[in-house]
Amino acid sequence: MFWTIYHVYTVIPALIIELIGAFFIGKALKGKSEKIRLIPIQVITIILLVLEVAKQLYGLITGYDLYSIPLHYCSLFLFIFPFVSFYKGKHKDIFRCLGAVISACLFLFMTVYPNLIYPAEDVINCGNFLTFKTSYFLGFHTVFFHCIAMASFPLFLVLDLFEFNLKRDLLSVLAWFAGYCIIVAPISHIIKVNFNNFYHCNNAALENFRLSMVDKIGWVGQLIYVLMISIGTIIVPILAYFLFKGCKILVDKTLFKKPQIEENN
């Protein structure tokens, strides 16, 4: 199931608020300095970091679960966004491109397959936490982290934070996400924690395929599965880059009446 009623309760309101908010923020900050235009992304960065610190402290106090280690796909926000927000060096466009790409990836999955991002149980736990029915913090963290991170995608579309350079951008995306797979896939198997579905799959059809492969050819079947997940982990951000670029052109032409994007080569 791609959507549940619980995802309707969380994703749809967040999506409406974030799209409308991004439109007015883009209008208000149009023509402002880069320092000013970065503020919305900086706010999101700080919120995500505070949420993550709270999650880690909660784990340390209540009993640490290795699943809380920030090696999940969406944990990349924690490593990329501080550079997007505060790094001003010559490679800033690379990090801003990576920030836009990971934002586009999350936005895509949250609008198409939110049940893969977080289960309905997390929404229930989030509601219970907010109404003081439980002290279980992780459901709240999961729902709010992803809903807030999702807001960065429309903001990147309206804030003009970097210039496109096809060769540089694609090489950066390829290197970053290939590096993520090379590092995280082995760790996932060493400590037996399912980061990014490397260890097993949350999608029932793919999990059945994995189990069938493992049953037939053992560890080679698992290796084939991991390679498939790794290829997808690299291909999806590349597709997301072009999705972001296309949306950026559309937004500039229709909502902000800007000339077509000029690409540096």
List keywords for this structure.
265 residues; 0% strand
Overview of this structure, please?
- The protein is mainly α and 265 residues long.
- 74% of the residues lie in helices and 0% in strands.
Summarize the structure.
The chain has 12 helices and no strands.
Blueprint of the fold:
Blueprint: H1 5-29, H2 34-37, H3 39-62, H4 76-86, H5 92-112, H6 114-117, H7 120-130, H8 138-150, H9 152-159, H10 166-191, H11 204-217, H12 219-254
Instruction: Give the low-confidence spans.
Output: none
Structural class: mainly alpha
**Mean pLDDT score:** 94
SSE string? HHHHHHHHHHHH
* Strand tally: 0
Strand content: under 5%
Note the gap between the termini. Answer: 42 Å
Principal-axis shape equals globular
Supply the number of helical segments: 12
Largest sheet report: none
Query: Helicity, in percent?
Result: over 70%
Report the C-alpha radius of gyration, rounded: 19 Å
